[in-house]
Amino acid sequence: MPTPLVSDDVREPAWDRAMGVLTGAAAATALVGADPGLLARFLDPAPSPPARLAVLARTALDHRSPPPADPLDRAWTDVLRALVRTGAAPDRSPELEHAPVDDPRGASWRALVRTPVPEHAPHRGSFACTHLVDAVWTAYTASGDPAAMYTGALAGARWGLSAVPLQALRVLAGTVDPHTLVADTFALVRGPRADLWPHCSVLAAEPRRLPPFAVPHPLDPEVLLGNIDHLRARPETVDAVVSLCRTHPTDAPHLAPADWVRVWLHDNPSTNANLHFALDEAAAAVAALRAEGKRVLLHCWAGASRTPAVAARYAAAGLGAPVLPSLALLIRTVGGHLDNPSLARAVAHLSGHDLADPAAALFPDGIPPRRADLPEPRITG
């Protein structure tokens, strides 16, 4: 029996990459401003060039599927599988390299491997994972919309769902709920499991539920900082939501699709392949929703770690506040913690600060007590 592409642990970066395949292909239409009908055909099983891409992508994600008979199809799915497994493209693919210029399979390979990867310098606003967007545009310029979509799938497998710009996902949500593409990915890779996320809500049963919690951002009271149970219990308190943990459509059925921004961000060190980019994008999403006049809930599962990190980045990048005092202020505001110091380090790095020891730098007199309702460290959603 062939081995699945990804382990069962959803925190594995390979899951991020697997989810980047279908979502990357779909988001490419938003990135290049393609005709919405192209995305509709990608989602429709009726034969068409976009539907062919969907078949190839699904074949690559499903380890039980036999390899395609067509040599170019087989070469393309082999590359995609290698990207999901390892995060790196094979050294060579002669079939794709020498495919006709107008063939989207070859065009996507050439765009992936020939487009320069940007320097990863978060303090200067440069992120290596924006290669995804650059490669999509390279393919579009060379060969049009279909090549952009094929490249979105390959680059999504290279960099992950967390590298897809959140504004593109907001546009995409007008046609298809991004959660649907995530659920399809899990069903393909793992097999359908109605009892597991993303096919059901995460940590929704007692005793892992927390009391609903939300407090105003101290520098912008129209942003609430809370937990997922506030989203579930008090939906009327906000107009838009930025979620930093795993969610399910039943958690917020009232929200307009474009007003619910979902970020792939774990509260565990070394599990976020694009940590700086994800934090920066999440903060920018809060700023964008506020610029639209919306009252925003920024939340993770407990509202104690990821939430204050993104809230501090929003304070620094969106409101002009100094980042280190903002980190300390926001952690105190939510009664949070530094169990995962990589978040604070990344937020500080985005503003040009090297925060080797966040606890000592932010709280020289000792870390303040955490909220009484918070769970033990490492229980997270």
Automatic annotation (TrEMBL):
UniProt-listed Pfam families: DSPc
Domain Dual specificity phosphatase catalytic: 240-314
Name of this chain's protein: Dual specificity protein phosphatase family protein
Gene source species: Nocardiopsis changdeensis
